[in-house]
Design goal:
Radius of gyration: 21 Å
Number of strands: 0
Length: about 425
C-alpha cells in the first residue's frame, strides 16, 4: 500500500484525465504500452538498487557504484524529490482550499457558473491564501513522515489508499449514470476518434514515468525497507496495475461528467479546479459529491508527498545522523522558500519569467522532462551494466528462493539493459526538440 501510495497521486487524479482530454484515446493506448516497456522495468531497477543496498538512494549509488561518477547520480536522487515536493505541495494546498470550499457548499451557493469557474483564478492569484494552504500541506506531510515508516507512512497508506480508491470509484459510478456520459466513454476508449501524433506518444511516456514516481529516489528508498522474501517483480506489477487502475477510474469519474455537462475536456490543468466545481454546482447533491472528490485529491497528494519527503529524511538520518524530527525541520525550511516562489508565480510573480516560464512551470518542466528521466536512465544503466548480473538475478529471485519461468529473467534483463534506456533517451531528446 505504501508503494501504491507513492505511485498514486495527483498525477493520476489530476494530471492523467486532463492529458486524455488533450490527446484522446490514443494517449491511453500509448500509456499502457509505455507502462509495460518503460515503467515496470525501471521500477524493478529501483527496487533492486534499494533492497540490494539497504540504504537511502544517495548511499546506494555512492557505495555500490564502481566509479566515483555514480555519486552524482545519488546526489540527483536527493535533489529531485525535494524540488518536486516543493511545488507539488502547492497543488496539494489548492486541493485543501477546495475541500474547505466544498464543505461550505461554496459551489452550489455561487451566483453563476462563471463565478464558480473564477474561484480558482481568484484563489491562486491571491498572495496569501495559497501560501497558507501550501504551508499547511507541508506540515501535514511532515507529521506523517516524522511518525516513521511503519507507524506513519505504512499506517497512513493502509487506511487511506483503500478509502481513496472507493471515493474515486463512487464518483466514477455516479458520472457514468449521467445523460450524455456515453460520449465521454467514446472519447476515452475509441482510438480512431482522435488523431494520433508523436506528441501523444511523448506525453504518454512522460506520464508513465511521472505517474509511477520513477527517477525521484522514492522507490529506491522504500525498497530499502523491503524484506528478503518480498517478490520484487510481483510488487512492481501490482504497483503498476493499481497506479493504472486509479488513473483510469479517475478518468471515468471526470471525462463522462465533463461531456455530460458540455464542458471542454481539453482545457488542461483547469479540469479539476474549474470544470469539476462547475459540474458539482449544476447537479443535484453536487455539494456532497464535491466533498468526496476534493478529499480524494488531498489524500492522493499526501500519499505521494509523504514518499518524496521520506527520501530526504532518510538521507539526513542515515548520512548526517539527524533525528527524523530535525531532518524534517531542515527540509521544511528549504521547501518553504521554493514552495513560496512556486505559489506566488500564480499571483505577484506571475509576470516574472525564467527561460520563458514562471517559477512553478520551470521547476515542473525541469524535474519531469529532464531530471527524472536522467535519474531513471541512471537506474537502468546501474542495474543493467554496473551491477553484476548474478546480483540482479539474486534480487529478482529472492536469492534463489523464488523459482521463475526460465524466460522471465532474460526478458526482464533485456528490457532493463536495452529497451528502457533507449525509450528514456527518446523522451529526453523529444522534450528538447518537439
Amino acid at each position: 500500500m505504501a508503494l501504491v501510495g507513492s505511485a498514486v497521486g495527483l498525477g493520476n487524479i489530476w494530471r492523467f484525465p486532463f492529458l486524455i482530454g488533450e490527446y484522446g484515446a490514443p494517449f491511453l493506448l500509448c500509456y499502457v504500452i509505455c507502462l509495460l516497456l518503460l515503467s515496470i522495468p525501471i521500477l524493478n531497477c529501483e527496487f533492486i538498487i534499494g533492497r540490494f543496498s539497504r540504504s537511502n538512494a544517495y548511499r546506494a549509488y555512492k557505495q555500490h557504484g564502481r566509479r566515483s561518477a555514480w555519486k552524482l547520480a545519488g546526489i540527483l536522487t536527493v535533489i529531485v524529490p525535494f524540488l518536486i515536493f516543493s511545488y507539488y505541495s502547492v497543488v496539494g494546498g489548492w486541493a485543501m482550499d477546495y475541500l474547505l470550499k466544498s464543505l461550505r457548499f461554496a459551489f452550489s451557493r455561487a451566483e453563476s457558473l462563471d463565478a464558480v469557474a473564477g474561484m480558482f483564478s481568484t484563489m491562486s492569484s491571491n498572495p496569501w491564501i495559497p501560501l497558507l494552504w501550501t504551508f499547511a500541506f507541508f506540515l501535514a506531510t511532515a507529521f506523517i513522515v516524522v511518525a516513521g515508516v511503519q507507524s506513519g507512512i505504512e499506517k497512513f497508506s493502509k487506511v487511506m489508499m483503500p478509502l481513496l480508491f472507493f471515493l474515486i470509484l463512487g464518483i466514477a459510478v455516479w458520472a457514468l449514470t449521467l445523460p450524455g456520459a456515453a460520449r465521454g466513454l467514446d472519447f476515452l476508449f475509441n482510438v480512431g476518434a482522435t488523431p494520433f501524433t508523436m506528441n501523444t506518444l511523448i506525453a504518454a511516456m512522460g506520464q508513465a514515468f511521472y505517474s509511477m514516481s520513477l527517477g525521484a529516489g522514492t522507490m529506491i528508498t522504500y525498497a530499502s525497507y523491503m524484506t528478503d522474501d518480498e517478490r520484487l517483480l510481483g510488487s512492481s506489477l501490482k504497483t503498476a496495475f493499481f497506479d493504472f487502475l486509479f488513473a483510469l477510474i479517475a478518468s471515468l469519474a471526470m471525462l463522462p461528467a465533463t461531456f455530460a455537462f458540455g464542458a471542454d475536456p481539453g482545457q488542461g490543468a483547469g479540469l479539476a479546479f474549474r470544470t469539476m466545481p462547475m459540474i458539482f454546482a449544476s447537479m443535484p447533491a453536487g455539494g456532497f459529491i464535491a466533498v468526496f472528490f476534493f478529499l480524494s485529491l488531498v489524500l492522493a497528494a499526501l500519499t505521494s508527498t509523504a514518499s518524496l519527503f521520506e527520501v530526504n529524511v532518510a538521507f539526513f538520518v542515515e548520512e548526517k545522523k539527524m533525528s527524523r524530527g530535525k531532518a524534517a525541520l531542515l527540509i521544511l525550511a528549504g521547501a518553504v522558500v521554493l514552495g513560496s516562489l512556486s505559489s506566488l508565480s500564480f499571483g505577484p510573480l506571475a509576470d516574472v519569467h525564467i527561460l520563458g516560464r514562471t517559477f512553478f512551470d520551470l521547476v515542473d518542466q525541469f524535474c519531469a522532462n529532464l531530471m527524472m528521466p536522467i535519474c531513471g536512465f541512471c537506474a537502468c544503466i546501474f542495474v543493467g551494466w554496473e551491477m553484476a548480473k548474478k546480483d540482479v538475478h539474486a534480487e529478482l529471485t529472492n536469492y534463489g528462493g523464488l523459482h521463475l519461468p526460465r524466460w522471465v529473467f532474460p526478458f526482464v534483463y533485456a528490457l532493463i539493459r536495452y529497451v528502457s534506456p533507449a525509450l528514456l533517451f527518446l523522451v529526453m531528446i523529444a522534450n528538447f526538440f518537439l
